[in-house]
Amino acid sequence: MDPSPIALPYFDALLASLEAGDPDLELAFGRHVHWGYWENPRTATQTAADFGAAAEHLTQAVYRAAQVTEGDRVLDVGCGFGGTIASLNENFQQLELTGLNIDPRQLERARQQVRPQHQNSITFVEGNACALPFADHSFDRVLAVECIFHFPDRRQFFQEALRVLKPGGRLALSDFVPTPLLLPLIQLNRAIVKDPGFYGQVQSACTLADYRALAQSVGLTVAVEQDITRNTLPTYDYLWQLGTAMKPVDWSAWSQTATIALVSRLALLQYLILGFAKPC
Ligand SMILES: C[S@@+](CC[C@H](N)C(=O)[O-])C[C@H]1O[C@@H](n2cnc3c(N)ncnc32)[C@H](O)[C@@H]1O
């Protein structure tokens, strides 16, 4: 198996556990590798199956923000194990689906897991979100589910997404977005902590105002701003349960996740779904 060109310790751990046949991780993270969405957070049951279902709901919320319709050409950037492509493949017809990822190990699993149906076509491509290997005006929709914080540069990704979108096309993504109050803490943390830790390199200092300015400067219109923070909070209870069951406990994973949980519960960090439209 080819190594990943970027350091993603959480994917190293996940791939090893999936390969070892961990049934709970297969249910929770075997398809999607992102937070869950609970319409009513009180209904969360902290089981792997419940978490897997909530992760599927989050994916659907992101592609609803992109207004995917039958026959579209859809690019899913940072496609993980192909879960978003799998969901689109199950729920739509005649889509031309392309999943792009920088990590060949994830693409290998995606190719094994996802087979086209409903007259859809599926291609998985290795590449970098900031240098998309596609011609101008190739796609109706571009998606980026919970991955933009890993990309080398948000502006470069937005410019690339705009370039590959057809006129009238849409980009939708989900991201952890700090409120301005959190920015000094993020900067302090960056200055003190040099090891990126369990989640690898993460750029988490893009506020909603930054997103609006970025969209405007590249020529995209903001179409959707959906705050789903409260719907994602049961994720932290599930991750807490997973983390404490691990022997030995991974302290890097534990402390990073506990910090994200705390600032999310304090409403300093929002989980947003954002949609953008390219002018016709
Ligand atoms: C949290 S995972 C989300 C995966 C998938 N979108 C999902 O929701 O299941 C982040 C993903 O971003 C990918 N990624 C990180 N940097 C990338 C880059 N520069 N270009 C393309 N993909 C990248 C990682 O390999 C990983 O699959």
Automatic annotation (TrEMBL):
Keywords: Methyltransferase, S-adenosyl-L-methionine, Transferase. The lineage of its organism: Bacteria, Bacillati, Cyanobacteriota, Cyanophyceae, Prochlorotrichales. Residues 18-252 form the Polyketide synthase-like methyltransferase domain. It comes from the Bacteria. This is SAM-dependent methlyltransferase. InterPro entries: Erg6_SMT_methyltransf, MeTfrase_dom, Methyltransf_11, SAM-dependent_MTases_sf. The keyword Transferase applies. It comes from Prochlorothrix hollandica PCC 9006 = CALU 1027. GO terms for biological process: methylation. One of its GO terms (molecular function) is S-adenosylmethionine-dependent methyltransferase activity.
